[in-house]
Amino acid sequence: MKILFVCLGNICRSPMAEAIFQHKIEEFGWENKVETDSAGTAAYHIGERPDHRTLQVLESNNIFTSHRARQVSANDDEEFDHIIAMDSSNQADLKQKFRTTNILMMRDYDEGHAGAAVPDPYYGDLSDFEEVYQILDRSIDAFIQREIKPFFHAS
Ligand code: 4NP
């Protein structure tokens, strides 16, 4: 089972999502069954470590990541079982790139916020990154309950 999280730059939202998801998967003991990665639709930050504010918010929750930014690549849609976009602009870019309609939206798993964006915190401050953390924490819990747990219980 392979899950890819996608945002624009792959330095703020999607590496945070990947790290939170990986942390929860380890808590379930599924780390040998589930793989995760993150990528950006844009090329601006290829090779860079996550934004220092993403790292700060993760570390304050005892979550660590070794990710370096990469751009979405042409075969990611064959490689991954689920691709999850942070906002509708990421989703539109992915649909164009892959000619597939099967791109999930992160906040479709955030009860009462279907269709909403995980807000881009890049031009904001630390409190914006903390808000993104809370959104992702809730949404990823629900994603695991709805998409990952049933998969293992059925197989
Ligand atoms: P992300 O945030 O898509 O959550 O990684 C951004 C990072 C960089 C830029 C925009 C958004 N940028 O314009 O460089």
What does this structure look like?
This protein is an alpha/beta fold and 155 residues long. Helix content is 45%, strand content 12%. The longest helix is centred in the C-terminal third of the chain and has 29 residues, at 126-154. The radius of gyration is 14 Å and the shape is globular. The mean pLDDT is 96. Bound molecules: 4-nitrophenyl phosphate.
Keywords:
155 residues, globular, alpha/beta, binds 4-nitrophenyl phosphate
Structural class: alpha/beta
Radius of gyration: 14 Å
Ligands, ions, cofactors = 4-nitrophenyl phosphate
Output the helix-strand order. Answer: EHEHHEHEH
Average pLDDT metric: 96
Counted beta strands:
4
Residue stretches low in confidence (pLDDT < 50, at least 5 long) are none
Query: In what range is the share of β-strand residues?
Result: 5-15%
Q: Helical amount among residues, as a percent range?
A: 40-55%
Head-to-tail CA distance between termini: 12 Å
Q: Strand sequence of the main sheet, in spatial order?
A: 2-1-3-4
Largest sheet: 4 strands, parallel
Number of helices: 5
How would the blueprint of this fold be written?
Blueprint: E1 2-7, H1 13-28, E2 35-40, H2 52-60, H3 76-79, E3 82-85, H4 88-98, E4 104-105, H5 126-154
Parallel strand pairs: 1-2, 1-3, 3-4
Helix pairs in contact: 1-5, 2-5
